[in-house]
Amino acid sequence: MTLGLTTRLLHADHFKGVEHGAAHEPTHTAVAFGYDAAADLVAVFQGQRGGHVYGRQGSPTLGALERKITLLEDGTGTVSFSSGMAAISAVLLSLLRSGDHVVSSQFLFGNSNSLMQTLDGLGCPVTLVDATDAAAVAAAIRPETRLVFTETIANPRTQVADLAGIGRACAERGVLFVVDNTMTTPYLFHPSTVGAGLSVNSLTKSISGHGNALGGAVTDTGRFDWAKFPNILDAYKKGPAAGWGLLQVRKKGLRDMGGTLSGENAHRIATGAETLALRMDRACDNALRLATWLKGQPGVSKVHYPGLEDHPQHVRAKLLFRQFGALMSFELDDRRDLFVFLDALKVVIKSSHLGDNRTLAIPVAHTIFFEMGRARRESMGIAESLIRLSIGIEDYADLQADFAGALAAAA
Ligand SMILES: *Cc1c(COP(=O)(O)O)cnc(C)c1O
User: Fold this and answer.
1) pLDDT at 397 over 90
2) Domain that holds residue 371
3) Nearest by Cα to 201 from 114, 276, 133, 118
4) pTM (2 decimals)?
5) CB count, 10 Å around CB of 244?
6) Are 77 and 219 in contact (CB under 8 A)?
7) Average pLDDT taken over every residue of the chain
């Protein structure tokens, strides 16, 4: 019986079996796991049998969430983390060695971009490229390049990476391709389909939706041959090579670096994830309708949304993704005051978060892109009046009315 995504997700705990017939895996908060026979404790420690030894490396509750993310991504395994940034840091720091080269999209989430600078300082040079152009990525790959990193839809200008082209370039050269799938979520896109070896998700965003917990995850798609990866330590070359990469990420990234998700947050995230498909359909539908409407409004000079036909990567986005996502940005013309506009919004929340069930707006140049200065913003095409929107699941008419009111107030 082949079940659909939401059905499998909803019944993942029940199919695996939970005590008392409970429909949810319980929230285990124990740090220590004890065994009656010392030999069993030793066997778990040595990886000869499954089980848990210490809460920093996992628990049944984290295991249940990890199974659900694996299922969503159609992957072979997942390691969860305390945040999306903890997951990305763990991938980079556990799989790279000094001297390794990284090619990264220049259109990255600000904190990931900052992390790339840290990596550069640790002796892993990073080349930033325009990931909408696979030829630019291919040209940047060197013999010592170990990893290519990109997002799917960039924030805030919504550039869509040439994921298929980059995947081919990486496959030809045997380079690990890592995709941050946060903006699309595994409901809209599977990085495995373009040959990515690892998919990273911030579970804080749309996968939860409720904005009540931070979390992150790294999923192995099964597409990368870890036997050919030179940085796997001998200790982790246990069992089939397919499991080596994730084992090293768990041991180095979780056990040694300690960015472990709490049981309570794992439970909240798993509950949110149950409705991912329903919420994404609604949020993406709201986003497409709002982008289309905003584009025709006086006072709005530009709208950036991959679902609009004049978006530079509209055709690519249509081919790759189930829908066009819930993130957009737009510019006000000179005659509208940005702050009057934002303060006139009554439903929409002014906040830096994204992927929430509530619609959120933020003035980009003054906040998330403030630190880099005006010159760098200009080079990145970030207008001073750019507003980023993360569209939620409100009733559409209420969103349109809120924006119409704010545009009138700012006129
Ligand atoms: C938010 C975000 C992250 C970081 O996730 P946190 O859970 O906030 O640490 C990483 N990548 C993208 C694309 C994001 O939007």
Assistant:
1) yes
2) 276-409
3) 276
4) 0.97
5) 20
6) yes
7) 96
